[in-house]
Specification:
Largest sheet: 5 strands, antiparallel
Radius of gyration: 17 Å
Mean pLDDT: 94
Structural class: mainly beta
Number of helices: 3
Shape: globular
Length: 190
């Protein structure tokens, strides 16, 4: 069941859902708007001939900041950003991150596969920003970038995200975070 604005407001007031800072007018009929933070992880050309998911790939990206001038996302380019908001979910809710339709209509995609937010999540969400248009798209710090809808689980999760033994790789992140898929191979889970 997707939560309505009335239930979202109640859970925010009770502190069961955290969206901080929560901008005025950001609660929609069944979602909460989120904004783009200033940090962008940009993929740079590398001497690597391919991406091996078994290796730490943190050297493939550089952190940039959006300042007075917007960040220009070129056609076909892929970068990582993050929400301005810190999100926290209880053990009985999940969230879905979706793009704003006005941005999708100009070719901006905000996630490839990471639109699902587990129960127990705490931190900023990393955005997988892609430009599928034929022209560059400007990205501004603080612009509305997406929306979160919330869904009720049938029961609270036994092991919410961040629980010991789960190998939760991104709990508590505060900036866009490069892939940590290699950790699955270190622990024998790959």
């Amino acid at each position: 069941m997707v939560l309505s604005d009335r239930v979202i407001k109640t859970l925010l007031a009770e502190g069961k859902i955290v969206v901080e800072p929560l901008g005025e007018g950001c609660i929609q009929p069944a979602s909460v708007d989120v904004h783009l933070d200033k940090h962008i992880l940009v993929f740079r050309n590398s001497r690597r001939p391919f991406i091996d998911v078994r290796e730490d790939l943190s050297d493939l990206t550089e952190m940039e900041e959006i300042g007075e001038q917007p960040f220009m996302l070129h056609p076909g380019e892929f970068v990582l950003g993050s929400t301005l908001e810190t999100i926290e979910l209880p053990d009985d809710l999940v969230a879905r991150l979706e793009g704003k339709s006005s941005l999708g209509r100009i070719g901006l995609l905000i996630h490839s596969t990471a639109g699902y937010v587990d129960p127990g999540w705490k931190g900023r969400l990393t955005l997988e920003l892609s430009n599928v248009a034929n022209l560059p798209i400007t990205l501004y710090q603080g612009m509305k970038i997406g929306q979160l809808s919330f869904l009720q689980l049938s029961t609270p999760a036994d092991s919410p995200y961040g629980s010991p033994g789960l190998g939760s790789k991104y709990q508590g992140q505060t900036v866009p975070t490069a892939s940590r898929a290699y950790r699955d191979f270190e622990s024998g889970k790959g």
